[in-house]
Amino acid sequence: MGANAILRFNEIILPVANLVKSHGDVMRHTLILFGRTSFILLLAFCTIQPQLLLAENEGEPKKKTRHHVLWVMDIDGNNLKTLFTSARFTSMGSPAFSPDGSKIAMDGSEPKNGKGGHDTRILLINADGTGLKDLGDGAMPSWSADGKRFAFSRYSPNHGVWIMNTDGTKRELLDENGWGAQWSPDGKNIVYSVYANNEANLMLYDPHEETFSYLLPVGNHPFRQFYWNCCWSPDSKSICIKAATKQGKQELVTIEIERANKGIKVQYSHEEKIPSEDITWHPDGNLILCTILSEKEDTKQFYEIDPTQKQKPRLWKPGQKIEWPRDICWTPDGKKVIFTTPED
Predict the structure, then answer these.
(1) Which of the 8 DSSP states describes residue 148?
(2) Could you give the 3-state DSSP secondary structure of residue 219?
(3) Which of 105, 159, 190, 235 has the fewest Cβ atoms nearer than 10 Å?
């Protein structure tokens, strides 16, 4: 078939074939009623403006939905296994183990299919990836020390930081201006980011005394934004969080709760590589694991940070073959790590 024939086939025959396929009965009746002349006119119309006839059926080219996968791997990089994937919840993140290691809470989102807003849900599964439960809308679940409640965040129209039971019942609003709550391992504090008085800060909530207090001095700290999914040290004395300075640098910082502004240590400052928000602190206290995006290399990989030292993050060798890891969490015993990636 010559080039002109192929062109005419693509321009005329394919549009008509698609139209007949989509509206077969209508087309057949049209040809019966109006005969060959109408068919020729129809071909000419398809040649000039096929998109008018096919817009209803074709629309925009469909993009393949990339499902996220939850993986589990030994701390030495061995025994990499798929733990959980879902046809319904194509995006998953913020995995968090229950204190006893028997359950995993995380958030999952369904495809929007052109609809606005968010449809992010709190999901609960067993540690082996079975027994999926949908606990309702919400994001970034964080376990209480006794394993009976979650701190979590909700999008509008119920925006803010909330608490609920781990079966999804008894939802209570803590702060409509808060975001990204994380419960301390000892259960004494919940930390989350806020924007008030024209500046960003971190809020500490004491669930026993039901009191709120700013972590950093109001108007006297170097940050203009705090991100979500921070992590606590195992002894509940410090947090590690991604922040943006007033000069625009993205940093990973550790903050000592008792020393606040004087206890800030910059673990990494954005140069060519951008740190992700989700961070996890190893149960032994000597290793922080994060993912960092290299703009130059267009890759995201695991990096490790020694919180006791002031040095740049190092590539975490056990995970160096993992492509585009996202949200991460250690198992309570520190022997394994779970994380999400987009599927291949």
Answers:
(1) S
(2) coil
(3) 235
